[in-house]
Design goal:
The complex is a heterodimer of chains A (364) and B (316). Chain A contains eleven helices and twelve strands. Chain A is α/β, with parallel strands linked by helices and 364 residues long. In chain A, helix 7 links the parallel strand 7 and strand 8. The longest helix of chain A is centred in the middle third of the chain and has 18 residues. Chain A is globular, with a radius of gyration of 21 Å. The N terminus and C terminus of chain A are likely disordered. Chain B has 316 residues and is mostly helical. In chain B, strands 1-2 form a two-stranded antiparallel sheet. Classes of the chains: A alpha/beta (364), B mainly alpha (316). Chains A and B meet through helix 4 of A and helix 9 and helix 10 of B.
């Protein structure tokens, strides 16, 4: 049981799994937060995306755009006042949205695990890291203490920490090692999907590079599927196959990283990219995006980026732009690219039609 | 009954899963600290004499076996002088250590176990459970110790009988243990609850929940190890307070006259008019013992607090 961490899928698929279904297909997901004495906040509004086996998806966007909420709602780890108001989250074809807490426990950590933001806070300061990494193995998989400790040692080695360090307390490790320990913990139950919630945010660039390299290598070796949440586009450029740019709770643009980053279609993506330093471009100043993201209690009608958009047209403030898919695998929600634009795929009216499976298939 | 190691008692009361193993590794660091070592040495002396009083001063003297003159000042025959019956004060004080420390220990264990369980559950579960437990603790928080003892003593003696014994301790003394426990658990519960309220919002608790750990597991494996230093500090304070309270209650006559404790001796000294007669040797030995035990416990508690907290000191 404790051998071969690298073997794909040690545990059988859940019984209800639909044969041939994609690993993950999220459709039209909406999340609302109840606010005391006011309208609820529509933090995520009609988001669709998919994830294939072994794929890495980067969710980008500025603070408060719903990246983390989207990811956490996959296994319904939302704060007490948040709930999924619409949509489906299908893992192996099993819809997780209607599941009870008890039923969801089967999927949390065993199928979808999380590398939390800020490893120092997510580790218990008075317990040794080995014990903490062994914890999901003991609790989740019901293995004996000895076996789980042994596996914790293997996991530590896997993420590049000598297993002797299992007896160290979190404060005795460097920031990078703590983050590695968090990754080891996320891998403990051999999950199908690992969500990295800003896994490199608090680290310096050297350590960031090491962690990203580690994630990349683990993905290759273990065949993991990754969802990486970050506001740092360079992280996505380095590690992900596809990226999804979110703005104010909606998908602005989604597609293969190379396509989206070299030829952004949505004005927001373009602005976001131009606000990052580029070593090759002859630019002295960074672009900025004027204004503030909208208040999600009362989002603007139509396109949510319209108030800040330099390309805004009259219809942008009244009509919600439909998502249009292109032959190169990119999906855009912008009135600049109405259905029927040259290069777009026919028959894709409406937002919910962004069928992730077909989209992912179109990439390769 | 022989006393278990008193230092082990605080650790025993706070036996978090990882704590005991850590305590083993921290022993060297603990003894390397000057104050911890001194406190531990004093405590060890008291534990040894409390466990084996006969070995040092022979059996407990009574009126028939008393050897000295009444109220004789210290001399070579009786190093600590004698009481009004001619009993050696050294003999009495040493034998009293067992009663005083056993009562202190039992009261501390009750206080800490009840206080920690109530505090952790109340803080972690919250809601109605928290409200009910805290109202109950409010009630016990305002109970005056001495008055409660005066009321409880006859009731308990009537219920269990004055001659009943538990671990070789007469029921009169058990009343004192129960009274100290009843009046001091609420403080411990409050202190621990307030810390738990802050701990349960920490991310590692969320992480444990995501992993699928139940509330019991989280409280035992995540919350408890984080409040061990509080528990140790509370245990030390409670033990010191319990020895004091025992002394007070025995002094006002609630003790067991046939089993001398330090408070019982002070009570006897007062009854014999020792202060008026200038018989300081009747009062000093038990009083100094109380002070020394309380002091040593405070020193040990301080050192334990540092050693049990992995963040302070001991960096590799």
């Amino acid at each position: 049981m404790t051998t071969g961490i690298s073997g794909r899928r040690q545990w059988p698929l859940p019984k209800q799994a639909v044969p041939g279904a994609p690993l993950l297909a999220v459709e039209d997901l909406s999340v609302r937060f109840r606010m005391p004495g006011g309208p609820s906040v529509k933090a995520v509004d009609g988001v669709s995306f998919g994830l294939d086996d072994g794929e890495a998806l980067g969710i980008a966007g500025e603070s408060g755009c719903g990246k983390t909420t989207t990811a956490l709602s996959l296994v319904q780890l939302l704060p007490g006042n948040g709930r999924i108001s619409a949509g489906s989250v299908k893992l192996f074809g099993i819809d997780l949205v209607p599941k009870t807490e008890r039923q969801l426990a089967r999927y949390r950590w065993r199928e979808i695990s999380i590398v939390f933001q800020g490893a120092m806070n997510a580790l218990n300061p008075v317990r040794r890291i080995g014990e903490q990494i062994a914890e999901p193995i003991e609790v989740r998989l019901g293995q004996a203490r000895e076996a789980s400790r042994k596996r914790a040692g293997e996991l530590l080695e896997l993420v590049g920490i000598p297993r002797q360090r299992a007896t160290a307390y979190p404060h005795e490790l460097s920031g990078g090692m703590r983050q590695r320990a968090m990754i080891a913990m996320a891998l403990a139950c051999d999950p199908a999907i690992v969500i990295g919630d800003e896994p490199t945010t608090a680290l310096d660039v050297m350590v960031q590079a090491q962690i990203l390299k580690l994630l990349e290598q683990l993905r290759r070796d273990l065949g993991l599927s990754l969802i990486l949440i970050t506001h740092d586009l360079s992280v996505i450029a380095e590690t992900c196959d596809r990226t999804m740019v979110m703005y104010a709770g909606r998908v602005a643009e989604e597609g293969p990283v190379r396509r989206v980053f070299t030829a952004p279609r949505h004005p927001y993506t373009a602005k976001l990219l131009s606000s990052f330093p580029n070593i090759r471009a002859d630019r002295r100043t960074l672009g900025i995006i004027p204004g503030q993201p909208p208040d999600l209690r009362t989002p603007p009608p139509g396109c949510r980026f319209a108030p800040r958009c330099s390309e805004a047209m009259p219809q942008c403030t009244t009509e919600v732009p439909p998502e249009v898919r292109f032959a190169d695998g990119v999906r855009v929600a912008c009135h600049l690219f109405p259905p029927g634009t040259p290069g777009s795929l026919p028959g894709t009216p409406g937002r919910a039609a962004g069928a992730p499976r077909a989209l992912a298939g179109g990439v390769s | 009954m022989s006393l278990p190691g008193v230092a082990g008692a605080t650790a025993g009361a706070s036996a978090g899963a990882g704590t005991l193993r850590r305590a083993g590794g921290g022993a060297a660091r603990f003894l390397a600290r000057g104050d911890g070592l001194v406190g531990f040495a004093i405590l060890l002396v008291f534990v040894v004499i409390a466990a084996l009083p006969d070995l040092f001063v022979g059996p407990l003297e009574d009126v028939t076996t008393a050897t000295g003159q009444p109220l004789a000042p210290p001399d070579f025959a009786n190093l600590f002088g004698t009481d009004e019956l001619g009993r050696s004060m050294l003999n009495l004080t040493v034998h009293a250590a067992r009663i005083s420390m056993t009562i202190g220990l039992m009261a501390t264990v009750i206080t800490i176990v009840v206080g920690a369980v109530v505090g952790i559950v109340s803080g972690f579960v919250g809601g109605a459970v928290d409200a009910i437990l805290m109202r109950i603790s409010d009630f016990f928080l305002v109970l005056p110790t001495v008055v409660l003892a005066l009321i409880l003593a006859p009731v308990m003696l009537d219920v269990i009988g004055a001659d009943a014994e538990l671990f070789g301790i007469r029921s009169t003394l058990l009343v004192i243990v129960v009274v100290i426990g009843l009046t001091s658990w609420a403080t411990t519960a409050r202190v621990i609850r307030s810390q738990v309220l802050s701990l349960k919002e920490r991310m590692f608790v969320d992480r444990a929940r995501v992993i699928g750990a139940g509330p019991g597991h989280i409280m035992w494996r995540h919350i408890l190890p984080n409040v061990v230093n509080l528990i140790v500090a509370q245990a030390v304070l409670t033990f010191a307070g319990a020895v004091f309270t025992e002394t007070t209650l025995a002094f006002i006559g609630l003790g067991d006259p046939s089993a001398p404790s330090w408070g019982q001796i002070l009570n006897a000294a007062q009854a014999a008019g020792a202060p008026g007669l200038g018989a300081w040797w009747y009062i000093a030995p038990p009083a100094v013992c109380v002070v020394l035990v309380v002091l040593s416990f405070t020193l040990v508690g301080n050192a334990l607090d540092d050693v049990l907290n992995p963040k302070s000191g001991g960096r590799r």
